Amino acid sequence: xxxxxxxxxxxxxxxxxxxxxxxxxxxxxxxxxxxxxxxxxxxxxxxxxxxxxxxxxxxxxxxxxxxxxxxxxxxxxxxxxxxxxxxxxxxxxxx
Length: 95
What we know:
Order of helices and strands: HEEEEEH
Shape: globular
C-alpha cells in the first residue's frame, strides 16, 4: 500500500507507512473517505454501495494513526489504480 503514495511523492523507501485496517469487504463498491471524497474499491467495516448515487458509508472514522503509521480501512493501491484507469479512459474528465 505504500507504493502509491511513496512513488507519487518520491519519498525514500520506509518514510511512508500505510497499513490496512481489518478484513476488506467481499465486493468492491463506492464509499467516502471524509465528506465529499468518493472512492471505489473494497473497504473494511462497511458494505460499500453499488452505485455512487446511493448513501455512501463514510469510512474515515475507521482510519487510525498509530505512531508513525496510518492504518486505512481500504486498499489504497486499489482505489488509486481504479481512479487512474478511469481518468485514462476519460470518465473523470472536466465537463
